[in-house]
Amino acid sequence: MTVETESVISLAKNKRNLKRKNANQVLGYIVVWLCGIAALAMVFWIVGYVLSQGFQVINLEFLTTRPAGGVSGEGGMSTTIVTTLYLVILTIVIATPLGVGAAVYLVEYAEEASRGSKFIKLLVAAARTGVEILAGVPSIIFGLFGFALFVLYMKLGFSLLSASLSGAALILPTIIRTSEEALKTVPQSYRQASLSLGATKWHTISNVVLPTALPGIVTGIVLGVGRIIAETAIFWVTLGGSYFLPETIMNSGRTMALHVYSLASETRAFDKAMGTAAILIITIIVLNLAINLLSRRLTARITGKS
Amino acid sequence: MSSENNRLKFKIENLEVFYDDFRALKGISLDIPENVVTSIIGPSGCGKSTFLRAFNRMNDLIPNVSTRGSVIKGSEDIRKTDIVDLRKSVGMIFQRPNPFPKSIFDNVAYGPRAHGQKSMAALEEIVEQSLTHAALWDEVKDTLNKSALALSGGQQQRLCIARALAVSPDVLLMDEPASALDPIATLRIEDLIQELKKELTIIIVTHNMQQAARASDYTAFFNMDEDRAGYLVEWGQTSKVFTFPEKKLTEDYISGRFG
Ligand SMILES: Nc1ncnc2c1ncn2[C@@H]1O[C@H](COP(=O)(O)OP(=O)(O)O)[C@@H](O)[C@H]1O
Ligand SMILES: [Mg+2]
Prior knowledge:
The complex is a heterodimer. Helices cover 79% and strands 2% of the residues of chain A. By secondary structure, chain A is mostly helical.
């Protein structure tokens, strides 16, 4: 066999292999595609079902009157919308400074502090592990903690305050971790440039590092908001379930998710549970769209590539 | 070349810099004359960047760095100078342009603002002056509110120079400031350096022999020993170092025989 024929044969083999590879690729593509379709279909089915059921009871009256209580589940859902909003705002106001502050400490100061002292190094390591673990703890555990500490021991009772303190504890790990990641992606060269101009470390953090990390930090906060809107167990044991509008932060209340839960489990008004669930789902969808838009805007503003 | 002007900006005495136990620089002693350009040349890893960071104490920011010997600016050891004052008077330009993700205006105004300047009128004046000095004003005067990241690499580097000038330094440290730029942008930076040296003392690290020969008045050649510790081989007026080097090593390096 000459060298040429050999190479022709091997070329033909290669081609066959290539064909087989192509066939595999197409098969893989189809499988992945089908999985994707199935997952999407599932989501659309659930959302579609809840929305179509829900919209049978949703009207202006449903949205603007408060629940009437009782096993028949009379009334609308107005107070639960407002209470959800109150709870979200209060929780974020508590959790954001704590979470972002902790992340700033971990990313910007912890290393330097640990260098000087073994004890601080140990503390920082413990804090990091703690955050990791807390991120995976079921929300009802935070609920029990909040019930024991805020509701009973600190005598705050079932209240917006107890609930938002517990809720803050629940979402702190998320906010800390996403903020940490965001801070870590800020190029070291920005910090160097700022410090080389004689700016202090704090000035550098507040004027260069934090603004640059803002989109990531906001994402973490919004993930937290979504969690607060969606959770039930933790608020069942800290917020109580009063369907009246809370007048102060010391009053009990009922979020939309809690309302769905109590309508479905304690009343005959399954249709109204669906109606509330539909509004809940719409809220979450709108929230997600808003955050996408906001984070794209922020990123564009920061990178100048609008 | 102004060899008459023999006032010194810096006097470096027996400078040594360590990263943990690793000695990156050993026994460096040399003078930096005022209002001229001094270039630092030498093979990669011989400690040029480390040396440059000793002038504004940026080395202090790196974990486990220790410094021995002294850097005297004017008549004062820089370790005794307030760090904010030191960094205001000794600006630094980095290898890669690193403008902040802010507007052009906010980039230049960053330093003055950090040092308490709040008056918008004063800031506007500083921004215009600094950008003019950095030969960038004409290109950006209508787009001051645009993001600095939208500028070209060469423009970004001149913006960084303007940002450094805005806090009125008397020294500018440049660490291979043109190595990430194209030849035209590089030439613009070199022209700019010639302008700036009328008012500033410039210390520039460069990999590029032609650049050192073209742009600097004094040249210091660094090399490293078998332990990778950087040391000063020789320094003096650029014309002399490049045409009649004292050491064979310098001649070999300049003519491209190693490094
Ligand atoms: N942050 C650091 N930590 C440890 N070693 C470093 C650090 N920066 C530089 N070095 C070491 O110091 C030596 C000099 O580095 P550098 O000053 O960057 O050299 P040059 O700029 O001449 O290439 C090199 O051996 C390098 O590995
Ligand atoms: Mg270097």
